[in-house]
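[recover] target loaded
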């Protein structure tokens, strides 16, 4: 017997983590955001969010600014509640050695041991909150989370920030960025190439292992206290190895009536070399800065030309 979540339970937990990650945001999370962030199929995600709503763990909001939000803070929702929202009650009402109800007058030899094991699992799940899962999720993405006996994630992920000004009004910039990510793909492709050109000069590997295409997703614009926030994720795919990935957010704010500041902050993971060599910290930092600087410069040029 393999102790694991069903596919539905898996998707429910992923979706709950996505909602917990966005709990502090001013607007609810949309279905397509959760689908992209957590790998939940678009055709299934509405049913999964419905499970969380039915369990009283999430609320749904309709309209242009609608979406889903947790009913309580991540610190107040346990993993047990989330798992049972997708899997149903974890306590069985039948005997472990049969399909009949478990009665003490016909108790089976496994009753006490199985009950203790079930109670221990429920207690562990009840002791873990969504806030704990979010903290772990962010540490795993940053490469700082370590579990003894488990293959460690690549530590070669760097936090990166950069900012650029665009000679366009805030409304024009937000409207273009909020229109979707397709127009950004060639600029991301070029920015990735700029970064990888640096790897060829000073790092391991060569042009033969370069990624071929870039997939980009721009999330819905969210109105923050002092800026409009637009989530950005892109990842290249290629023949082998670990491919470059960038995830973060664009903060767009008005400088004056004709100028807008676009500020990026997030995490960049570079590709590995031909033989799986990782970049050292100095090269990694240079590649990350070069890639983001190239991206923002090209985005600014495209916005101004548009």
């Amino acid at each position: 017997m393999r102790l694991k979540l069903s596919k539905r339970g898996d998707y429910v937990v992923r979706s709950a983590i996505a909602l917990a990650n966005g709990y502090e945001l001013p607007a609810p999370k949309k279905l397509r955001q959760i689908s992209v962030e957590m790998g939940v199929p678009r055709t299934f995600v509405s049913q999964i969010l419905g499970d969380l709503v039915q369990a009283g763990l999430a609320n749904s909001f309709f309209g242009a600014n609608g979406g889903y939000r947790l009913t309580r803070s991540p610190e107040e929702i346990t993993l047990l509640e989330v798992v049972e929202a997708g899997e149903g009650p974890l306590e069985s009402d039948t005997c472990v050695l049969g399909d009949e109800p478990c009665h003490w007058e016909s108790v089976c030899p496994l009753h006490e041991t199985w009950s203790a094991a079930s109670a221990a699992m429920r207690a562990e799940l009840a002791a873990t909150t969504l806030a704990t899962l979010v903290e772990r999720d962010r540490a795993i993405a940053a490469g700082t989370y370590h579990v003894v006996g488990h293959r460690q994630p690549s530590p070669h992920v760097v936090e990166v920030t950069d900012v650029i000004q665009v000679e366009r009004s805030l409304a024009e910039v937000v409207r273009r960025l909020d229109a979707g990510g397709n127009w950004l793909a060639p600029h991301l492709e070029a920015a990735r190439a700029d970064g990888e050109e640096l790897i060829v000069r000073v790092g391991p590997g060569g042009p033969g292992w370069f990624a071929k295409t870039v997939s980009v997703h721009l999330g819905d614009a969210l109105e923050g206290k002092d800026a409009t926030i637009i989530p950005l994720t892109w990842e290249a795919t290629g023949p082998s190895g670990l491919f470059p990935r960038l995830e973060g957010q664009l903060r767009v704010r008005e400088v004056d009536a004709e100028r807008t500041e676009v500020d990026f902050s997030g995490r960049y993971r570079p590709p590995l070399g031909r033989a799986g060599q990782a970049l050292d910290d100095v090269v990694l930092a240079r590649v990350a800065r070069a890639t983001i600087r190239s991206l923002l410069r090209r985005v600014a040029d495209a916005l101004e030309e548009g």
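[recover] notes: The first strand starts at residue 58 and ends at 61.
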